[in-house]
Amino acid sequence: MKRFHVHLHVTDLHQSIAFYSTLFAAEPARIESDYAKWMLEDPRLNFAISTRGAAPGVDHLGFQVDEAADLADLKDRAEAADLALLDEGQTTCCYARSDKHWITDPQGVAWEHFQTLGNVPVFGKAAQVAPQTPAGGACCAPRAPAAVKSAAACCSPVQKSCC
After folding, report:
1. How far is CA 45 from the centre of its chain?
2. Which of 12, 48, 77, 86 is 20 to 30 A (C-alpha) from 68?
3. Please, which residues bridge with residue 93 across strands?
């Protein structure tokens, strides 16, 4: 089963948590000093906010899956559509260990396809098999079609978030 994912950058985490908790009539499933996430069932949504972005607004969209077969299906569809794909494999990002890949739509919007494998106590630290940013951190959401063609180009100097 799939869950739609939206990640926003916010300037004031506490104010945004209050707003979205009221809007969703639900408290976040996870709160950290720089991050909050709601796992909603109606609609089925993984909604995350963080203060790690360069500017407020949408960072990326995506689909979270429950099963590895569903992730493989999303990857097959992306490859069949001849989309540039960045396969991170298993990585750590947004306080979770995940298996993921990224695609970028024609407008430059990053889409993350991922299966969450467990929780971790840090925002992001690349797994050994995951691509590294030039600064050595976990790979960020790609921002342009060319950005997903190589792991070395997956992060811009301005964009510093993932998940």
Report:
1. 13
2. 48
3. 96, 124
Residue 35: closest CA among 152, 119, 126: 119
For residue 52, what are the contacts with CB-CB under 8 A and spacing of at least 6? Answer: 9, 34, 35, 123, 160, 161
Mean pLDDT (whole number) for 22-34: 96
For residue 35 the two structure tokens come to: 């991050």
Token pair, residue 75, equals 């990857």
User: Could you report the per-residue pLDDT of 60-108, keeping only the tens digit for each?
Assistant: 999 999 999 999 999 999 888 878 888 887 877 777 778 899 999 888 8
Asked if 145 contacts 106 with a C-beta cutoff of 8 angstroms, the reply is: yes
Query: Could you please report the per-residue DSSP string of the chain?
Result: -EEEEEEEE-S-HHHHHHHHHHHHTS--SEEETTEEEEEEETTEEEEEEES-SSSSEEEEEEEEESSHHHHHHHHHHHHHTT--EEEEEEEEETTEEEEEEEEE-TTS-EEEEEEEEEE-SSSB---TTS-B-TTSSBPPPP-SGGGGS-GGGS--SS-----
pLDDT: which is higher, 75 or 147: 75
More confident of the two residues 19 and 162: 19
